[in-house]
Amino acid sequence: MSAPNWTNPETIALHAGWRADPTTGSVAVPIHQTTSFQFQDTGHAARLFGLAEMGNIYTRIMNPTVDVLEKRVAAMEGGVASLALGSGQAATSFAVLNLCEAGDNIVSSTDLYGGTWNLFANTLKQFGIEVRFVDPADPENFAKATDARTRCWYAETLPNPKLQVFPIAEVAALGRKIGVPLIMDNTAAPVLCKPLQHGAAIVMHSTTKWIGGHGTSIGGIVVDGGNFDWEAHAERFPTLNKPDPSYHGAVWTQAVKPLGPIAYIIRMRVILLRDLGAPLAPMNAFLTLQGLETLPLRIERHCSNALRVAAFLAQHPAVEKVIHPSLMDGEAKRRADAYLKGGYGSLMGIELKGGKEAGQRFIEALKMFYHVANIGDARSLAIHPATTTHSQLDEQEQAASGVTPGYIRLSIGIEHIDDILADLDQALAAATGPSLKAAAE
Ligand SMILES: *Cc1c(COP(=O)(O)O)cnc(C)c1O
């Protein structure tokens, strides 16, 4: 059955990539909890291994439950195909390793998730891959740091803690001029932003966050936009344009041409997933699909609640500063309005007047908000990044990434707004010492 070409995320989230099971009629996506798949005959087996025909072989490489999630997220982002992985970190690693060999480099925004920062600043060095960090305030910085061995540019749509939206179209356009693809981590802005429409070549998500949405499953996904000409810049992309000795000399830009512009994502599946592992488990794909089905609806509530919380905290006497795109001005606000449609996201930073100690008292006084190292859950969450998520960065690196000692990160959930505001209000009262209270009055 050929599916209609939906463009509305509400419909895509429920219908893309699946109708009903052809043998049982099952409407919910079945959990194919199996490692392997029976071949029809020896010819069928040979065609699958030779990529003459696409089909299930072994769950490390592909699985029908995971396949539905891959199709649905690809449709939601407007890409041609995607690859689900066991975590967002695996997705970032694969997105880069798919293009880089030892001696190559990439250019990345400094505004990154802590785990990505560590991967880029330390672990990729082990593989001989250099990451050049640049300030995204000026898009030209990406071009300036680029040379003949630069394989891609990397950034996050809505990076915390600064929450300054990345200039996707500006940077992507500069890259396309010299044949460098932009990879966007869109974890914090699903539905709100479609980086591929703004010129990005590849999008990744930690599905652990908003897409899963219920704090049940770690997962990641890489979406191929199918909009980048890897062949036109063949010398920059040897992994896609040189014969691959591990696949009887296949040249990926040629080998899969009949299947569409999917050289990047196919190579990631049949080489990196084959050799490095890190598949998403079928059960986790199922749970992530359950989350995805209501994602657009949840995002609406996440955003409307966050808008109310930002306004409430901005006028609260115990709060020094609120960091949320809705409250920004100048270029930061212009970028937020240009790239986020339908809301400003549900991440927020606050600095309390009492600094680090007040911050810790505040977190301990929260009764409904969970104190966890997660974001994007349907529940409201809070954490103190300097002593947790960003504690492996030294002070300079923390400052560069926007983490000040008193910064508290909130991820606003979909509870009733009255209960969210009440919990924040009582925790602020508890955190605010008598002197501060007097000062505020
Ligand atoms: C959480 C997160 C990741 C890493 O994802 P995991 O699923 O935890 O491995 C990457 N990027 C961003 C923006 C994240 O929030």
From TrEMBL:
User: Which EC class, in a word?
Assistant: transferase
What domain of life does the UniProt record list for this protein's source? Bacteria
Q: Which organism is it from?
A: Neoroseomonas eburnea
Task: Give the record's keywords alphabetically.
Answer: Pyridoxal phosphate, Transferase
- GO MF annotation list: cysteine synthase activity; O-acetylhomoserine aminocarboxypropyltransferase activity; pyridoxal phosphate binding
Q: What is this protein called?
A: Bifunctional O-acetylhomoserine aminocarboxypropyltransferase/cysteine synthase
Residues crossing the lipid bilayer are none
Please give the cofactor(s) recorded in the UniProt entry for this protein.
pyridoxal 5'-phosphate
Please tell me one Gene Ontology term that the record gives under cellular component.
cytoplasm
Q: What is its EC number?
A: 2.5.1.49
Q: Give the record's family classification.
A: Belongs to the trans-sulfuration enzymes family.
Q: Name one GO biological process term.
A: transsulfuration
**What positions are modified (N6-(pyridoxal phosphate)lysine)?**
K209
Q: Return the Gene3D superfamilies for the record.
A: Aspartate Aminotransferase, domain 1, Type I PLP-dependent aspartate aminotransferase-like (Major domain)
